[in-house]
Design goal:
Layout: E1 7-12, H1 16-26, E2 33-39, H2 55-61, E3 64-67, H3 71-83, E4 87-90, H4 99-107, E5 113-115, H5 123-130, E6 135-144, H6 146-149, H7 156-164, E7 169-175, H8 179-182, H9 188-197, E8 203-209, E9 216-224, E10 227-235, H10 248-260
Parallel strand pairs: 1-2, 1-3, 3-4, 4-5, 6-8
Antiparallel strand pairs: 6-9, 7-8, 9-10
Helix pairs in contact: 1-10, 5-9
Pfam family, one: NAD_binding_3
Domain Aspartate dehydrogenase: 166-252
Catalytic activity: L-aspartate + NAD(+) + H2O = oxaloacetate + NH4(+) + NADH + H(+); L-aspartate + NADP(+) + H2O = oxaloacetate + NH4(+) + NADPH + H(+)
Length: 267
């Protein structure tokens, strides 16, 4: 039996997520996947174990691109990557709350687009339940440190309440279409839940700032004709980028292992 050709991986983003993912790939921790290059808008120098390319150069050398640099990358380059015949693994799922962009990505090829669940679990079960019929109600409550949720659009009153809070403060409520637009670096989980449920408008999201939040928490509550479901996860924030959780790069690596064909995976 011949050995399958390894997936040639290009990594966009050499930040909190990208460094962990790139280091694991370079160390050979994901059998069947080989890190070929890194793409970043800043020079990474000797920090990266492989050459730094532009996106266009990466497409000439890779068959799989991993996005670990934010929603703007998905918007700017997603279609071009897929149209080149290169597969795309998206970590910043919040970009997909743009309905037109999501449609274009899902219908652009021959490359294939994949999404990682990131910092939340239970999405596979929600997809299975959805196959039996629509869910009546889905709620997500995300709680983070106030400093990780501050945004340019916030008025002085809201910022003051967040900065002086001694307990939880609800910062925003809305649908899974509305919230990721307002918090592009902090609420990819809302978009991931919406992808699993199949309708961003069905998912009601509450974003909470809590100065005592040593852990970032996500609570998903869903109900429908076939049952009731509740998932809660609590993660330590990444030390270098508290807006993301420590577990996110490992979720990306798990998805990469599945795409590379590792056996024994729970899918």
């Amino acid at each position: 039996m011949s050995t399958p050709t390894p997936r040639r991986v290009g990594l966009i983003g050499w930040g909190a997520i990208g460094r962990v993912v790139g280091g694991a790939l370079a160390a050979g921790d994901i059998p069947g996947a080989e890190l070929v290059c890194v793409v970043d808008n800043r020079p990474v120098g000797d920090a990266a174990p492989v050459p730094q390319y532009t996106v266009e150069q990466a497409l000439d050398h890779c068959d799989l691109i991993v996005e670990a640099a934010g929603q703007a990358v998905v918007r700017e380059w997603g279609e071009a990557i897929l149209a080149s015949g290169t597969d795309l693994l998206v970590a910043s799922t919040g970009a997909l709350t743009d309905e037109e962009l999501a449609k274009r990505l899902l219908h652009t090829g021959p490359g294939r687009v994949y999404f990682t669940g990131g910092a939340v679990g239970g999405l596979d079960l929600l997809q299975a339940v959805r196959a039996m019929g629509p869910l009546d109600e889905v709620r997500l409550t995300t709680t983070k440190l106030p400093s990780t949720l501050e945004q340019p659009w916030m008025d002085t009153e809201l910022l003051a309440r967040m900065r002086s809070a001694t307990g939880p403060v609800e910062v925003m409520t809305g649908t899974a279409r509305d919230v990721p637009v307002k918090f592009p670096k902090s609420t990819n989980v809302a978009a991931s839940v919406a992808l699993a449920v199949g309708d961003p408008e069905t998912v009601r999201v509450s974003v909470v700032a809590d100065p005592a939040a040593r852990h970032t928490s996500h609570v998903i509550e869903a109900s429908g004709a076939h049952g009731d479901y509740r998932f809660e996860v609590r993660h330590l924030p990444d030390a270098t980028n508290p807006a993301t959780s420590q577990v996110v790069p490992y979720a990306v690596l798990r998805s990469l292992a599945a795409l590379a064909g590792r056996t024994g995976q729970i899918l």
